[in-house]
Amino acid sequence: MKNQLLFIIFLFSFANVQSQFITSNDTVLCSGEDVTLVASGANISPSFINTDDIHSGVIDLGFDFNFYGNTYNQCVLSANGYITFDLAQGGVYSPWTINNAIPNAGQLPENAIMAPWHDIDPSVGGNVVYGTYGAAPNRVFYVVWCSMPMFSCNDLIVGQYLQIFETSNKIEIHIDEKPLCMAWNGGAAIQGIVNENSTLFEIVDDPVLLQPRNFPLNWTADDEGWEFIPNADFTDYTVNAIDYSPIATGTVVWSDQYGNILSEDLELTVTPDTGAVYYYISVVDVCTGETIPNVDSILVQTFSPTNAGLVGTVGQDSTIFLCDVTDGTEIIDINEYLGDDYEEGGTWFLNNLVVSSNLDLVENSTGDYSYITYGINDLCNDTSFVNLYVNKLPEAGIEGYSLVCSGDLTFSMFSKLNGVPQEGGVWYNPSNEIAPDIFDPQNSEIGTYTYVVEGVNACPSDSQNLFISYQEGFQIETYSYPVSCSGYQDGSITLFTENNTVAPITYSIDGGNTFNNVNEFYNLEYGTYQIVIKDGNGCVTEEDVVVASSAPE
Fold it and tell me: Is 283 or 241 the better-scoring residue by pLDDT?
C-alpha cells in the first residue's frame, strides 16, 4: 500500500506566514522622528497536504552552508522527517522503511540531517513548513514538521524542528514530542547526520537508554534540544544536548507595551511620544493555531530636542554689533546673545574650531559663531548662530590751535591736530560745510574747523576741533647807511616795524638764519642783505636792503 502512494499526485499549499524575530536594534529617537521596525521572516512554502512519503522540490537555503566539507545553498525536504542535500531527490519518493542502521551506503537517506527520520503521514494532518530568518551573516534556515500523525498510529502526534546556521555551520534539532508506534515499522526512528557516501556520520545517544538512536532502538522524546558543531575541517561533529527552544512560526502581530495591536506586517513605522515604549511581536503558530505572545521585543526611547537659544525670543537677533570703547580691555560673554531660554553646556565654534564663550572685545573677535547643544542623537542637536561684528571706537585726536599769518603757505589741518587722530575723517569749516584738509591762508575761512571720524555699526562717531586764527602781516621801515670807502665795513642797517601786536620782535639780516632782539646792525660791508622780521606769533615780513658805498668803487 505504501508503494502505491508513489503514483499519487502530491499537492503543495503556499502558506503566507513568517518567521519570528525583530531585526531592528533598540532605538533612540528625537521627538517628531519616526522609525520603521522590522521583523525578520521568510515565506513558509511549501507545506505538504494529503501527501505521504515524498520529497519536496529543490529549496533555497538563502545562504551557503558547509556540511561535511561540502558547501550547499539548496536542499530537499522529506515528508518523513529529514532533509537531504542530494538535490536529485527533489520531487521523488522518500523511503519510509527502516531495516538497517545508519550508515547504510547506497541507500537513502544519505547526505542528510535526520530530525529524526521515521514514518509520519502528512496526508492525515499537520504541516511541514520552512523559511529563513535573520540577517547576514547570521541567518538561519529552519524546517518544522508540526502536528504530524505517525503512520498507522494517527493518534500519535509528532512535532520536530530543524535549524541550520549561517557562518557557524551549526545544526540544531528540537523535538517537541516523538511518541513510539510499535505497530508500524517496528517503531524505528533514527536521529543524526550522515555524509554523502555514508562514510561519516553522527548519531544522537539517547540520554535515558544510553544507546545510539539508531536502528533497531525504540525510543521516545519530549522537549529536547540537540546541537551538532563541526570541527575545523568538517570531518567530525560534536553532539551536545541543549535546552528545548522551538522556533515560533506563523503570522507576525505587532503590539505596544499597552497591549494595543498595531500591525500584522513585517514592518511597523511608529512616531512615539517622548518617553520609552516597548514594542512586541507575537506569532500565530502554524502548528497549533495558538498565539505565542511577545516572542521578541524592541525598546524605542524618544527624547526632546535640545535648545540652543534664539528660538521664540522677541526682538532677539543673531547679528550683533559691538564697539570696543575700552581699547581691548573689556571681555564679553556671547552666551548673553542666545536669549533667555538656551540650554547650558553646549559648545561654541568659530570656523569649525572650538572657542570659549568669553571673548576679548576687539576687532579680531569679529566672526560667525555657532552654538551647538547636543542631544541623544544628531537630530536632537540644536544650533544657534551669532554673527558678531566688533568695531574699534574712532579716534579724532586732541584739539589743536593754529595762528595763520597772511603770508603763510598752505598746510594740512590734519597735521595741526594733537594726539593720534585716525585718518580718513571729514573736515567741516566754520560754516559747517565739508572742507578740504588743505588750508589756504589766502582763501580759506578763518575760525573753528571740526574733524569728524565716522563710527561703524555700534560705534559712535568722534570729532575734534582745530581753532585757526589769522594775523595780518606787519609793515617794516628800513634805513641803511653806506660804507665810507670801498672795502670798509662801517655800513649799518636800522629796522622798524609798524602795526605789530605780538612781542617779542626779532630781526635777521641773513635771510632768517640768525635772529637778534636788536633792530640795529653795524659794521656792515657793502652789499644786499635779506631782511626777515618775525613777531611773537611767528609771522614774518621779508625785504631786501642794500648797504651802498659812498665812495667810488
Answer: 241
- Mind listing the pLDDT tens digit for each residue in 472-519? 777 889 999 999 998 899 999 999 988 766 788 999 999 999 999 999
Q: Do 107 and 166 sit in the same domain of this protein?
A: yes
* Parent domain of 368: 319-392
Q: Check whether residue 419 and residue 539 sit in a common domain.
A: no
pLDDT over 60 (residue 16): no
User: For residue 326, is pLDDT > 60?
Assistant: yes
Residue type present at position 452: V
pLDDT level of residue 252 (50, 70, 90 thresholds): confident
Place of cell 518617553: 275
Q: What is the DSSP string of 389-447?
A: EEEEPP---B-EEEEEETTPPPEEGGGG-BS-PPTT-EEE-TTS-EE-SEE-TTTSPPE
Distances 156 to 66, 150, 187 between C-alpha atoms, Å: 35, 6, 12
Identify the CA nearest to 39 among candidates 377, 303, 294, 301: 294
8 Å CB contact between 142 and 19: yes
> How many domains, in total, are found in the chain?
4
The backbone region for 351, taken as left when phi is positive above 0, alpha when psi lies in -120 to 50, beta otherwise, is left
- Residue 540 in this model has a pLDDT that exceeds 60: yes
Beta strands in 79-187 (DSSP E): 82-84, 112-117, 127-133, 140-150, 153-165, 171-178
For residue 40, pLDDT over 80 is answered with no
Is the Cβ–Cβ distance between 485 and 461 less than 8 Å?
no
The verdict on residue 37 lying in a domain is no
Cα–Cα distance, 475 to 540 (Å, whole number): 10
Choosing from 194, 219, 242, the residue where a domain stops is: 242
Q: Are residue 55 and residue 68 in the same domain, yes or no?
A: yes
Instruction: For residue 248, give Cα distances in angstroms to 19, 20, 142, 283, 454.
Output: 7, 6, 11, 7, 82
Domain termination residue (choose one: 242, 258, 275): 242
Could you give the CA distance from residue 534 to residue 506 in angstroms, rounded to a whole number? 5
This prediction's pTM? 0.54
Say what the pLDDT of residue 44 is: 57
Model confidence at 356, pLDDT cuts 50, 70, 90, reads: very high
| Per-residue cell: 415 | 597735521
For residue 293, the 8-state DSSP code is E
Residues 327 and 434 in one domain: no
Same domain, residue pair 202 and 61: yes
Residue 248 lies in a domain: no
Both 124 and 203 in one domain: the answer is yes
Backbone dihedral angles phi then psi of residue 135, each to the nearest 5 degrees: -125, 145
Q: How many helices (H) and strands (E) does the chain have?
A: 0, 42
Are both 329 and 436 inside the same structural domain?
no
Asked if the structure places residue 193 within a domain, the reply is: yes
Q: For residues 27 and 206, what is the distance between their CA atoms, to the nearest angstrom?
A: 44
Does residue 517 lie within any of the structural domains? yes
Counting residues of the chain whose pLDDT is more than 70, the rounded percentage is: 91
Identify which of 230, 182, 254 has the alpha carbon closest to the alpha carbon of residue 38.
254
Do 151 and 66 belong to one domain?
yes
Provide the grid cell at 242: 541543549
